[in-house]
């Protein structure tokens, strides 16, 4: 089974209250290394068989037309991932 990961982030000019809340909570937990946090969305798309260029093209179309709001979000990543990456990134088993 192949997997495709799609990452969507708010456009830089869009306020990110969730990212800001996480960013302000980190120092209270003693985590002070990070200067900013932006929160986005991550989708794992599973396919039967290997990921082909055509499937990546379809995933990109889905990302741009369904998985993101192009007015306020950018699609920042559409790529095949291997099973080890999928398990590590919390992908569906």
UniProtKB/TrEMBL annotation:
<keyword id="KW-0067">ATP-binding</keyword>
<comment type="subunit">
    <text>Part of the FGAM synthase complex composed of 1 PurL, 1 PurQ and 2 PurS subunits.</text>
</comment>
<keyword id="KW-0436">Ligase</keyword>
<comment type="similarity">
    <text>Belongs to the PurS family.</text>
</comment>
<keyword id="KW-0658">Purine biosynthesis</keyword>
<dbReference type="GO" id="GO:0005737">
    <property type="term" value="C:cytoplasm"/>
</dbReference>
<dbReference type="GO" id="GO:0004642">
    <property type="term" value="F:phosphoribosylformylglycinamidine synthase activity"/>
</dbReference>
<comment type="function">
    <text>Part of the phosphoribosylformylglycinamidine synthase complex involved in the purines biosynthetic pathway. Catalyzes the ATP-dependent conversion of formylglycinamide ribonucleotide (FGAR) and glutamine to yield formylglycinamidine ribonucleotide (FGAM) and glutamate. The FGAM synthase complex is composed of three subunits. PurQ produces an ammonia molecule by converting glutamine to glutamate. PurL transfers the ammonia molecule to FGAR to form FGAM in an ATP-dependent manner.</text>
</comment>
<dbReference type="GO" id="GO:0005524">
    <property type="term" value="F:ATP binding"/>
</dbReference>
<dbReference type="Pfam" id="PF02700">
    <property type="entry name" value="PurS"/>
</dbReference>
<dbReference type="InterPro" id="IPR003850">
    <property type="entry name" value="PurS"/>
</dbReference>
<protein>
    <recommendedName>
        <fullName>Phosphoribosylformylglycinamidine synthase subunit PurS</fullName>
        <ecNumber>6.3.5.3</ecNumber>
    </recommendedName>
</protein>
<dbReference type="GO" id="GO:0006189">
    <property type="term" value="P:'de novo' IMP biosynthetic process"/>
</dbReference>
<dbReference type="InterPro" id="IPR036604">
    <property type="entry name" value="PurS-like_sf"/>
</dbReference>
<comment type="pathway">
    <text>Purine metabolism; IMP biosynthesis via de novo pathway; 5-amino-1-(5-phospho-D-ribosyl)imidazole from N(2)-formyl-N(1)-(5-phospho-D-ribosyl)glycinamide: step 1/2.</text>
</comment>
<keyword id="KW-0963">Cytoplasm</keyword>
<keyword id="KW-0547">Nucleotide-binding</keyword>
């Amino acid at each position: 089974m192949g997997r495709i990961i799609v990452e969507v982030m708010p456009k830089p000019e869009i306020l990110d209250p969730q990212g800001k809340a996480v960013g302000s909570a980190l120092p209270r937990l003693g985590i002070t290394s990070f200067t900013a946090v932006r929160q986005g969305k991550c989708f794992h798309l599973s396919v039967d068989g290997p990921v082909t260029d055509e499937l990546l093209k379809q995933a990109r179309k889905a990302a741009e037309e369904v998985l993101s709001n192009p007015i306020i979000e950018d699609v920042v990543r559409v790529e095949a991932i291997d099973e080890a990456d999928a398990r590590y990134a919390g992908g569906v088993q």
